[in-house]
Amino acid sequence: MQLTSEEQDMLAGKQGKAKRKAMELLVALGAIYGADRLIPITSAHLSGVSYKTIGEGGIDFLEEMAADGKVCVPTTLNPMGMDGERWKEMGVDEHFAQRQMHIISLYEKMGVEVSCTCTPYLLTNRPKVGDHIAWAESSALSFANSVLGARTNREGGPGALAAAITGRTPNYGLHLDQNRKATHVVVVEKGITKDEWSLVGHSVGRKLGACIPFFRGLGSDVNGLKSLAAAMAAAGSVAMFMVEKATPEQPDTLEGLPVVNITREDIEDTVKRLRTGKKPDLIAIGCPHLSESEMKELADLLDGKKKKGDVEVWFCTSKGIWLRCPKERAVLERFGKVLCDTCMVVAPIEVGHKVTASDSAKACAYLPGLCSQKVFCGSRRELMELIL
Fold first, then answer.
1. Of 110, 175, 182, 343, which has the highest C-beta tally within 10 A?
2. First to last CA, the chain
3. What is the C-alpha to C-alpha distance for residues 328 and 333, in angstroms, rounded to an integer?
4. Per residue in 33-83, pLDDT tens?
5. Between β-strands 259-262 and 134-135, what pairing exists: parallel, antiparallel or unpaired?
6. Regarding beta strands 213-216 and 242-243, do their DSSP bridges make them parallel or antiparallel, or are they unpaired?
7. How many distinct structural domains can be found in the chain?
8. Does 202 lie in the same domain as 332?
9. Closest Cα partner for 233 from 194, 197, 201?
10. What is the pLDDT of residue 67?
C-alpha cells in the first residue's frame, strides 16, 4: 500500500502517539483487504460507545487514544447504554452510569460530537453522494451507502476512530465502483406495507446473507428504508442495497441476476421466528432511533387515549429529534419514557426485564443474545394496542 509522506510521518509517530497507533491499524486493515492506498474521508461515525458493549478494555483503548488524539473530520457517536439524564429511571446502577459518562468524556476530549444516535444522517452528519466516509454503525452505514449514495465499508469501532483521527481510510470494498453492483433482484409482494419493511429486511438478510439486493415493488419512504437497512444489516451483514427509482445508484443491468420473491408468507414466518415471548414487561420502540415524523405519527396515534396496564414503554430517539418535538414528547410521556441517546439493544435491560416487545427486526434479532431477552415482535400499531 502506497503512503504519502504525511502518512509516513504519522506512521513514524512524528504527529503523536494516537496518530501512529491509528495509522498502524489502518495499514494493517489495508494489507488484509488489499488496499492500494488510503483515501480522504469527509466524516466518521463511531460505534463502541456503550459501557455494556466495550467494558473496561474498551475504556483502556479510548484513554490511550484520547491522551493526544483529536479527530480531524466531523465525527458522531452511536447510542450509549443509557439516557444521560434519566438513567436511574431506566434501572441503571451508579457504577455503570459513571463509567458510561467517562466514555463520553473521552470521546468529547477527542473532539467527537457527543450526541449519541444510530441515525446521524437525520441530524448533522449527512454525507453527500460520492463522499468517502468511515462509519461503524451497521444500519447507518447501510443507509449512507444506499439511500445517500456515500461510500463506506462496514467499519469496526477502532477502525472508524482511526479513520477519524487521521482523516483517511483504506481504499477497498465499497469505496470501489466494481464492488457496488447489485447481486440479486428482490421482488416484494404487493400489499406489504412500509411498517413491515423491517420484516422484509430480516427475511432478505436471512435468505441471502451478505449481498447487494436491488428491490422492486418497494418505495422510497425514508423511515421504511432506515428500518429495512437496520434489519438487513443485522440478519445478513448487508452493507448496501438499491431500490428501484429511489436510490442514487441503480443497476447497469439486471441480466443474469437471481430473483428472490418476498411474500406475505415470508413476513409471517419472520414474525414467528422472532417472536419467542408472549407477555412483554417492556415495549421498546426506536431501533433505529425515531425520526421527527415518526414521533408525530406515534403522538397522533396516542393523543386523547389512556394507557392501560403497567408494562413499561420506551420511545428511543436522539437528543436532536427530542428537542424538535416538544408537543409530541408531552403526549408520549403519558404512556412511557422518551429516552435520548440510548437504545434497548445496548442498555442493561436484562437487570429489570425478561420479555421485550419491539417493532424492530434488528432489535428482536439482537435482544436474545445481547440482553438475555425473550422477544415479542410486532408492528408498531400492534404494540401500541397492547397498552390502549
1. 343
2. 60
3. 9
4. 999 999 999 999 999 999 999 999 999 999 999 999 999 999 999 999 999
5. unpaired
6. parallel
7. 3
8. no
9. 201
10. 98
